[in-house]
Write a structure and sequence with these properties.
There is one protein chain. A hairpin with a 4-residue loop joins strand 10 (about 305-310) and strand 11. The chain is built from seven helices and 13 strands. The longest helix has 28 residues, at about 1-30. Strands 2-3-4-5-6-7-8-9-10-11-12-13 form a twelve-stranded antiparallel β-barrel. It has about 375 residues and is α+β, with helices and mostly antiparallel strands. It is elongated, with a radius of gyration of 44 Å. It has two domains: about 1-75, no CATH class; about 105-360, Phospholipase A1 (Outer membrane phospholipase (ompla), Chain C, Beta Barrel).
Length: about 375
């Protein structure tokens, strides 16, 4: 009886089973519409297969590095910005540029490619200024022989106008594929007794100084101080006078420039070129002006502080000159100059005096 009933159920349900069997492949082949379709499946293995079916397109697009990390066969990318990193992990923030440290010596001598301005361009050399000066001891001694014939001639005033103008020009830029530039320069200083009307306001002294320089960049540091250049040069200085008023000399020198931040130090040693004794108007000039000088400069918020020193240890004679340039308007600065020692001008090479100068300095 039980068998008969079972066969009857099978006969009545077989068409439904056949219909379900035929429909199962179609159900298996149709992709689920979303996660909700998979979550509604009660059987665990079918629900998991549904989720795998949804994830299949995304697995094929996964990066090799990600697949390797998931399987444990590889290491994650070492750099976030690599080509295999997800776009969301790549930083788009701009990389800050390294600060550009300005160099006064590099600008002055055009030491780097970014500073080059070509040849035959007028450039500043020594400071260009106009100042009124006050000295404690005017130098009348060189003019005494002429006063024999001018008994009524007054002495020199303690006050005079002094100016210095000049330029330099590059004539060869890195010739023969070298790093050396060849420069020429000219500097002129004049001392004018402008307020000495009793003496017809004469120009007491004018110094002429042409120069030739071969400048080579340096790039090494020691204790935080950077060597910037070395310079080999020749310089002539004279006052264009005759007889006992004549002064002149020629020198060859070696000069080096050092720099640290806003501070620069330029040192120079020279050797005087000999002249015939009969033509040498100041054969003892190195006893007073020494055989070298040292100049330090510090820049601070538009202000420029400088100090030049020279000294002859054998004769214990020398000089020091301090300067302070401060902003006034545009490229014009106020200028204060203090000098003490020998050689304020060429005719004063063996005369010691103290001077104070006030005026203006031009910048470029």
């Amino acid at each position: 009886m039980i068998v008969k009933n079972t066969m009857n159920i099978a006969r009545t349900t077989s068409p439904l089973c056949l219909l379900l069997v035929a429909a199962c492949p179609a159900i298996a082949l149709s992709a689920p519409a979303g996660l909700g379709d998979c979550a509604a499946i009660a059987a665990n293995d079918q629900r998991l297969a549904c989720f795998d079916q949804l994830a299949a397109p995304y697995r094929s697009q996964a990066s090799p590095d990600a697949a390797a990390v998931k399987s444990g066969d590889g290491e994650p990318p070492s750099q976030v910005g690599s080509s295999h990193a997800p776009a969301s992990l790549v930083s788009t923030a701009p990389v800050p540029a390294r600060p550009v440290i300005k160099s006064a010596l590099a600008e002055h001598w055009e030491l780097g490619p970014e500073h080059k301005r070509g040849t035959f361009q007028f450039r500043p050399h020594q400071a260009n200024y106009l100042i009124t000066t006050f000295t404690d001891t005017p130098n009348d001694a060189p003019y005494q022989p002429f006063r024999r014939f001018l008994s009524s001639s007054p002495g020199f005033s303690h006050n005079e106008l002094s100016y210095q103008i000049g330029f330099k020009m590059k004539v060869l830029e890195e010739p023969l594929q070298s790093s050396t530039d060849l420069w020429v320069s000219y500097t002129q200083r004049s001392f004018w007794q402008a307020r000495n009307r009793d003496a017809s306001s004469p120009f007491r002294e004018t110094n002429y100084e042409p120069e030739v320089m071969a400048v080579t960049p340096l790039n090494f540091s020691f204790l935080g101080v950077r060597a910037r250049f070395i310079n080999l040069g020749w310089v002539h200085q004279s006052n264009g006078q005759a007889s006992t008023l004549s002064r002149s000399w020629n020198r060859v020198y070696a000069q080096m420039g050092l720099e640290k931040g806003n501070f620069s130090l330029v040192g120079r040693v020279w050797r005087r070129l000999g002249e015939p004794v009969a033509e040498d108007d100041n054969r003892d000039i190195t006893d007073y002006l020494g055989r070298g000088d040292l100049t330090g400069t510090y820049l601070w918020r538009g202000h420029e502080f400088s100090l030049m020193t020279r000294y002859n240890p054998r004769t214990r004679k020398g000089a020091a000159q301090g300067g302070w340039a401060f902003p006034v308007a545009g490229k014009v600065k106020g200028y204060v100059q203090l000098f003490s020692g020998y050689g304020h001008s060429l005719i004063d090479y063996n005369h010691k005096q103290n001077t104070l100068g006030l005026g203006f300095l031009a910048t470029y």
